[in-house]
Amino acid sequence: MTVTSAPTTAPAPGETGPPGRARRRALRPAAVPAAVFLLLALLPYSALEVPVLLDGPLNAPGSLQLLALCLVFAGLALGYDLMFGRTGLLSFGHALYIAGGAYGTRLAMTEWGLTLVPAALLTLLLGTLAAVVLGAISLRTLALGGIGFAMVTLAFAQAGSLLVGRNPGGLTGGEEGLPLHAAGVPEAFVGVANTVHVYWLALGYLTLVAAVVWGVTARPVGRVWQAIRDNEQRVAVLGRDPFRYKLGAFVLASALAVLGGAVHLLVTAGATPHSSTPTFTLTLLVMVVLGGSGTRWGPVVGGALFTFLDQRLAAFADVAEPLLVLGTLFVLAVYAAPGGLVSLRARRRGRTA
Amino acid sequence: MDTFVLLTLTGFGLGALYFLIASGLALIFGLMDVLNFAHGAFLTVAAYTAWATADAVSGMGGLLLAALVGTATGVALAVAVEFVLIRRLYGRPKEQILVTVGLSLAVPAAVQTLAGADARTFPVPDALAGTVGVLGAQVPVNRFALIGVALAVLIGVRLFLDRTRYGLVVRAGVEDRAMVTALGVDVTRAFTVVFALGGALAGLAGVLGGLYFGSLSPHQGTGLLVFAFVVVVIGGLGSLTGVALAALAVGLTQQYANYYAGGYGDLAVVALLAAVVLARPVPGAPRAAERLRRLLPAPPAARTEGGRA
Question: Where is this chain compositionally biased, Low complexity type (chain A) (predicted)?
Answer without folding.
Answer: 1-20
